[in-house]
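ok so i was messing around last nite and threw this chain in just to see what happens. nothing serious, just curious
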Amino acid sequence: HRASWDGEGNWVYEAEQPEAEKTGFIKRLVTVNEFRIHEDPETAQLIPGYFKYHAGSVENLRQLTDCLIVDVGGLPQLEKRPLVERCTHYVVISRRADAVADWHQLCDSVLNPLAVIHSVLDTQQQVINPEPLEIVAGPWLNTQRAVIPDILIEQIEKLMNREGQSQVFNHA
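result:
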C-alpha cells in the first residue's frame, strides 16, 4: 500500500516509456511541473488527515491479506505516526546512514524492527548484523528492478510462520 504524501513512485511506474527514455522523461516532467505540496502552508495542514485516512485503509487491508507492506515515503515525519501505529514491524531502506536513527525513533516504540537496509549504488549484498537484520544492499533504484536479498525474504517467512497471523510491514 503506497501511503506517501507526494505520490512519487506511482507515476514513475505508470509511465509507459522504454527504460532508457524513462529517466530523462521523468526528470523533465518533475522539473516542469514540480509543486512541493507538502511545503505549501495551506496544504501542509492537510497532511495529518491524509495519514489518518491511510491508517484506516491499512486497518481495512489487514483484514484481507496475510502480509501487507506499507510504503510511508522517504522521510520519518511525526504526521505519519497514526499510519505507523497500524503496522507491526518495519523495514528501513535508506542511502543515508544518519537517517536510520530517525526512522528508529519514529517506529521503535510501537513496531518491531525487521530489517535495516543501507542502500548503495553498486550491486552487492552484505550482512552487517543478522539480528535484528542489518544489511548493505543495492542498487535500489526506481529505474531498475531491485533484487530483494534472500536473507530478508527468510526473515519475513520466519515471522509469518512464527506469528501465523496477518502481518503489516512498514517499508520506509
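not much to say yet. The longest strand covers residues 112-119.
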